[in-house]
Design a protein that fits this description.
Blueprint (H helix, E strand, L loop, with lengths): L3 H5 E3 L6 E6 L2 E2 H8 L2 E3 L6 E6 L2 E2 H8 L2 E3 L6 E3 L7 H8 L1 H13 L3 H7 L13 E4 L12 E4 L6
Antiparallel strand pairs: 1-2, 2-3, 4-5, 5-6, 7-8, 9-10
Length: 156
């Protein structure tokens, strides 16, 4: 018997990847890129897929959203959601995902491993602000035996 999941995941004819087919026999990415209703954008005058208010996606992000005073930073910027600009919205509601991506990018470790290693300083036991340090000073060696949590104090 074929399951519901097997019916949905098929090969997209445009990108040839195994994805969920949503509209007109295409995956969501290909449908958004190739098949959405195309208009002449009233701002940039290019013929691109329609987003809203007669604008393409880039122009709508830049000019279609109203200017508001951000509740977090206090600056007048384009509205993202919850009365915040896009920068403050991302930092407020997606901070863990941003941190996890940065740890993976810069330290080649997961967020859970980073939290475990930097739980407290190995020297003094301080647990508020702890940095990640490599024992052998090789930043390309992300093994747990090479990583320690350490508080660097300024000596005068």
């Amino acid at each position: 018997m074929v399951s519901y999941k097997d019916k949905q995941n098929k090969k997209c004819p445009k990108c040839r990847q195994e994805k969920r087919i949503v509209n007109k026999g295409l995956c969501d990415y290909c449908y958004q890129k190739f098949e959405r209703r195309k208009i002449k954008c009233k701002v940039c005058r290019k013929i691109l897929p329609h987003r809203a208010r007669g604008m393409c996606n880039n122009c709508y992000k830049r000019e279609g959203t109203p200017l508001v005073r951000c509740e977090r930073c206090g600056e007048i910027k384009h509205h993202k959601a919850k009365r915040m600009c896009s920068n403050c919205f991302g930092k407020t509601f997606h901070y863990d995902r941003i941190k996890a991506g940065n740890y993976k990018k810069y330290h080649q470790i997961s967020l859970e491993d980073y939290k475990e290693v930097t739980r407290s300083c190995i020297v003094c036991g301080f647990d508020k602000i702890v940095d990640l340090h490599h024992i052998d000073n090789d930043h390309n060696n992300p093994s747990k035996s090479n990583l320690i949590g350490w508080v660097v104090s300024k000596s005068s």
